[in-house]
Amino acid sequence: MTDAIFASPADAGRRLAGVRYLADDAIATTVFLAQALGKPLLVEGPAGVGKTELAKAVAAATGAELIRLQCYEGLDEARALYEFNYKKQLLAIQAAPADRAWQETHDDIFSEEFLLERPLLAAIRRSDPTVLLIDEADKADVEVEGMLLEVLSDFQVTIPELGTVAAVRRPFVLITSNAARELSEALKRRCLYLHLGYPAPDRERDIVLAQVPGIEAALAEQLVRTVGTLRDLEIKKAPSIAETVDWARTLLALGLDDLDEAAVGRTLGVVLKHVSDQERAAKELGLSG
Amino acid sequence: MASLVDRHTGFVAELRRAGLPVSVAEGLDAVRAVRAVDLLDRESLRAAYAATVVKRPQHRATFDTLFDLWFPAAVGDGAGAARDPERPARTVDDDGRPVPAALDPRVQRRREELADLLLSGDDAGLRRFARLAVAEYGRTPGQESWFSSGVLSALSPETLMARLLEAVLTGRERGGMAERVARRTFRDRIARFSGLVAGEVRRRIAEDTGVERTARIAVRPPLERLDFAGATRAEMEALRREVYPLARKLASRLVQRQRHGRRGRLDFRRTVRASLASGGVPLTTHHRPRRPHRPELVVLCDASDSVSAFAHFTLLLTFALREQFSKVRAFAFIDATDEITKYFAPGADVTGAMTRLAAEADLVWITGRSNYGHAFKVFDDRYRDAVTPRTSLLILGDARSNYGELSLPIVRSMVDRARHAYWLNPEPRAQWDTGDSAASRYGELLPMYECRNLTQLTAFIEELA
Predict the structure, then answer these.
(1) How far is CA B200 from the centre of its chain?
(2) Which residues of B touch A193 (CB under 8 A)?
(3) Domain region containing B14
(4) pLDDT > 70: percent of chain B
(5) Hey, how many other C-beta atoms are within 10 angstroms of the C-beta on B368?
């Protein structure tokens, strides 16, 4: 029911690349399918592999507006869906002329004017192309998932005082999760699923080259392989793509053109942010000092 | 078209049989997805299936194995495997037996090719080469079936490592970071080659004997149903990665439970302040946060050889728990008991902790074989104060005491003192009480759970929280 925005998986890949998001075949195909089947796309994977970036890239590539719902513990309907503006309602009651019938006032204060729309409702009511990003769904409580189910299966919201609001135009929905908590089977069943891992060395090199203009291909290659080795170590926080890119920028800023032990030792803090991780890396990679 | 539908239903049925929970709705989604992509593009087809039927990363390996069987990349020798039937792949000596691989010039030429491919990292080339190599070396004359061992022993890719390193590290000193990084890269590529060969062998076997039968032999159970004791090294690593989320889950469940209780006391000041905005009507009430109740955990873990795979795993669980709770005390025992909490200080390095633990902890009293009775006695003597009415006590072990004493009264008193007590036993329930197992005698004192895979461990964590 979404308008066909991508013609084929290859087209999706090309247009994402156009906004500097390098998608591999699996990503391009899955994004294309989510759009073609009109289903929400659940993207899971470790922090920093570009899950949120993917939503932004889809929005940029299709000229859609990005509406973002950041999940957190204690997120509720009033923050995610809609709420009535109590204060304004109270004001309206107080300001109402004395001779006005209560029923009239009542109808009045539960109208559109007093409705505060939150991301989910906003995404459904928009008539222009929309990408709805539900970020870090695993952070929210289980109850929120129930609410999402309702919204995502029918793309409609029922507001008791106003009636049912159905989507004019289905938004492209992307849900991200770090898998801190297993999402419910029911939610997973309704979504397409994409697991984003750390990229293959070639793809990561291309990402570095695209994001950091001026870096030598050979250095990027060396950098990506080193980051890969770091990710293999049993450390607490494996370096993300963003950190690889940061590292590349750091090396460029320092004017280093070879990644030897000394250079790694000096700049390790850019990619590893725990002391124990740094110690472990120093030991495993044979860095001196 | 009918054959495609059959293929689809057969594939989905086999996924279910292998333990993937594919619902009917997901199967239908898969059909819709498959119709939307170009069927001739095999990777698109794979992605379409993966997006609709695989909803957990642990299931991906099983899925890929089955996908390769059901939607094979090639038929017969496959396109691109330009094989010359006139020339056998191995040189034959005067007696008609193949020359040893190391002396066979043809094998050596193939090894050169493989080395070049590994060096350049050309994946498409490697895939073609794997197909060719299986055709040549996967079946020795007289053999009925295909084996990857033939290919791997003829080409022995592991022995190419020195040469590959030599090629990249020209002039640079050895043993440093550059070598480690290069070594890892080549190790990955060699592993990739072995994987390709294994896949190709499976494909050929499937062609000979049928897809379903091959699938039944080829597919390992998904990670969450994999036996801790029977896990390969790679699987153990994967299991290890699963432990952290579990520990987090346990921690968050314990916290959630208290949050779902009553809200804290009314915060009068904040409520009144907030009511100013609504003309003095307190529309929203504010509450003080509840003081968190910190659950305490005491873990007592059998570290003997008979449960070593399990012990390794549970120690990791302990480690993960240690990072989630402020108060976890861990003890390990074989025939004596020692506190191991200190090796698991927050921020400590996990592999280092395991080595230090093995070297330094005082676990062995005389025999070095599990003696539950003595271990409990030592625990009771030295760490009696560890178990308090606020403690959840977790005992991990197979309850095989080598016919030694059991110290049941001591265990009973520990259980009585603790708030909760649980015993996780890595042995299949059917083997409990056979031989020297004292499972049910301990089981009378505290609930004992069979715990030999992630599913059971997860179930237990739900129970505990």
Answers:
(1) 24
(2) 50-52, 54-55
(3) 4-70
(4) 82
(5) 13
